[in-house]
Amino acid sequence: MDAILFYVFAAVAVASAIVVIAQRNPMYSAFALIVTLCSLSVIFGLLGSPFIAVLQVIVYAGAIMVLFLFVLMLLNVRREEDAPGRGGRTLRGIALALVTLLVLQAGAVLLRPSPGPAAQFDASTRAMATVLFSPHFLYAFEATSILILAALVGAVALAKKEL
Amino acid sequence: MSPSPAVQELVLAVVKIALVIGALLGLFSLMTWIERRTLAFMQLRLGPNRTGPFGILQPVADGIKLFFKEEVMPAAANKWAFLAAPVLAVGTALLAVAVLPYGPPFTLPAWGLLPEWLRGRTMQIQIAAIDVGVLFIFAITALGVYSVVIAGWAANNKYGMLGALRSSAQMFSYELALGLSWVGVIMLAGSFQITDIVNAQAGWFWRWNAFLQLPAFVVYCIAATAEVARIPFDLPEGETELVAGFHVEYSSMRFALIQMAEYINMITVAVIATNLFLGGWHSGIPGLPSEGLLGFVWWGGKVAVVLFVFIWLRGTLPRFRYDQLMNVGWKVLIPVAAVWILITAAGVALLPGLFPVASR
């Protein structure tokens, strides 16, 4: 059952991710990206971490993508015109992606990393909070939040002409 | 021979889904009638009283009318997005109800009619008791914005567009206050599970979060009203200025679907208020039992009161101005909720005797 759901949502995620880059209408790209994020969230849920799954939807699909759509709607972005010589660049892009994939796969095969401790991994909310607030990660965690706060203040200062 | 546990769970889940969705659809149509009648009485009118006894069949008549109306799609509309938006609205509305418990856990009687594996089984009307119930609702609320945005944008109508912009800004702003108002409740219960949160409020009624977490409750009530875009926060629709806002171009059954999603969201918000703040199915007085059927009575009564307050507000309050709306959201509700979180955290940490966390 879990396997079927995983393959269904993995297929949806990949398909909608392709739509994101292949679609010329930015609005559709944004919609497709939302679908990608939601199916990724389902995959997180299937992996046994409902907390990450829900965060994925709240932060990315719920907050960031709304802002994207907002801007797209306000700017009234039209369908992008095809630039000349697009076909050649698409081909080169696909070739580059394939080469990257090949290199990564080769690396994985050659280095043969030990399989991760996925089976015993406790991804519950409590376990995550304990790890996040342990001395190991606490300073990085707090530093990140200060960084975000600084970005916030900077954005307000840039956007507002007179405070 | 009884079916395997997996099949049992599946059958139970399907029955629960059918039960909850059926009840919600019934309550939705009933709510439209109750709302119109109550509003009419508040304004010294009679309201719909012609169809059936007291006009109670009015929703049926409305449904038939909407069903047979012509469906109009603007020529310049974005076809797929226009068709998808109402479906998305109902979809997100019905997703959020999946994690809510409806009434107390109860034990099925040993009737001969029931299959053997069901007799004497303890269960609860809750489709999915997931670990992060409260957060799940929050995530689905966040997704609910899209149906409004897409509906307003796809119709290619200026009023619709303005309604959608207003609405996304409003929902976005009040979502934060809504989420923050839950944090204190979660801290007191020590769990994201809604059933745990309800059970943490057992005992005397001053153990209800509406009293222990009074500021959070007030913030929740205001933010929730704004989140479901009810008067006095109905700027996304703004009948007098935007004709109907984001759903101006919708007609027939698609209009009915959008309407349905709004009412289901309102019922969801009332159920959340009951479970998180008003003690759920607990009677509030230790002597009074709150198990079994009586629990459903308490629970249903509380939900009904909250729903009535929504209608009452609509009958008495004027609409906010847009800048007032933004000021209240960002400069009052969010700071109040944030400071209250600090106070609750201090209380939980410093006075563990006064606030025994349920599951530590």
Dominant shape of chain A: globular
Supply the CATH architecture of the domain at 1-79 in chain A.
Up-down Bundle
**Per DSSP, what share of the residues of chain A sits in E-state strands of 2 or more residues?**
under 5%
Mean pLDDT of chain A: 82
CATH class of the domain at 1-79 in chain A: Mainly Alpha
Number of helical regions of chain B:
12
In total, how many beta strands of chain B?
Answer: 2
The main sheet of chain B orders its strands as 1-2
Order of helices and strands of chain B: HHHEEHHHHHHHHH
Structural class of chain B: mainly alpha
**Percent range of helical residues of chain A:** over 70%
The coarse silhouette of chain B is globular
Kindly, what is the distance between the CA atoms of the first and last residues of chain B, rounded to a whole number of angstroms? 41 Å
The main β sheet of chain A shows up as: none
Oligomeric state of the chains in view = heterodimer
Number of domains of chain B: 1
- Tally of helical runs of chain A: 6
Q: Whole-number radius of gyration of chain B?
A: 21 Å
Instruction: Give start-end ranges of low-pLDDT stretches of chain A.
Output: none
Structural summary, described in words:
The complex is a heterodimer of chains A (about 160) and B (about 350). Chain A contains six helices and no strands. Chain A has about 160 residues and is an all-alpha fold. Among the domains of chain A are: about 1-80, Four Helix Bundle (Hemerythrin (Met), subunit A); about 135-165. In chain A, helix 1 (about 1-20) packs antiparallel against helix 2 and helix 2 packs antiparallel against helix 3 (about 50-75). Chain A is globular. The model of chain A has no long low-confidence stretch (mean pLDDT about 80). Chain B is built from twelve helices and two strands. In chain B, strands 1-2 form a two-stranded antiparallel sheet. Chain B has one domain (about 75-350). Chain B starts with a helix and ends in a 10-residue tail after the last helix. Chain B has about 350 residues and is mostly helical. In chain B, helix 3 packs parallel to helix 10 (about 250-275). The interface of A and B includes residues 38 and 73 of A.
